[in-house]
Design a protein that fits this description.
This protein has about 280 residues and is an alpha/beta fold. It has a single domain, classed as TIM Barrel. The strands form 2 sheets. It has an 8-stranded parallel sheet. A two-stranded antiparallel sheet has the order 1-2. Helix 6 links the parallel strand 8 and strand 9. Helix 1 runs parallel beside helix 2, helix 1 packs parallel to helix 9 and helix 8 runs parallel beside helix 9.
Amino acid sequence: MSAVQPQKSKTLALRQPNQNDTLVRINDDVCFGGSKVVLIGGPCAVESLQQISDTAKAVKSAGGVMLRGGAWKPRTSPYDFQGLKEEGLELLHQVKKITGLPVVTEVLDPRDVEKVSAVADMLQIGSRSVQNYPLLKEVGQTRKPILLKRGMMTTVDEWLAAAEYILAEGNDQVVLCERGIRTFETSLRNTLDVGAVAVLKDKTHLPIIVDPSHAAGNFRYVNALARAAVAAGADGLLVETHWRPADALSDASQSLTPEQFRQLADQCRAVAIAVERTL
């Protein structure tokens, strides 16, 4: 029996000489990687029709062009709210029809990819799933745009290797999302690696957005981190906002009120203009 020959490493995620940036389109109004910074807003988790509907309307009113919201929620404790699951997916479907906002939501299990894809315009792979290789392969076969979050202790190269799993399945519609990494510093929930945005702009052709909410862990700092992300060249922002943050069943401390979300949009729009982009 002949020995197995090692395969050459492929670099689908890495930028090749003279390669243009990949554009990931959701619809005619939402394009990641172009001149416009994409603003995504919504709650951590879908809780009720009124909650997700009122929040979505506030997001759209402030200039947000996509709605985020978790139907399934991975939580550190098994006793915390885990999401409404199929019911939450149906509520996202209803609000999508009401507001016209495309939806991004997380998928946790390869067995749920088909049902989530039937509603979501973009599938999110959360930080805990960044190295769930069966899940990465499964979403790679959907041809749906994929939002790939960085793991809390994942290096840039490991993150790009995770993207490679999706790309290798034939799905080139991948958007990377920096959400902060775990370091020795505890003043914020995670340390936002703004430098990674600059590094990825050089290393990869894939769009890169930033989630300032999970990095901050506190609503007081979300706006500042969002402004820094836009200044560093991020192609979009993924921001947690809730119609009543004090009542949120998950991530209440980092969720913005509708008015705070509007302020963030206005200030980040000014930063975008300063770096010759729009929001």
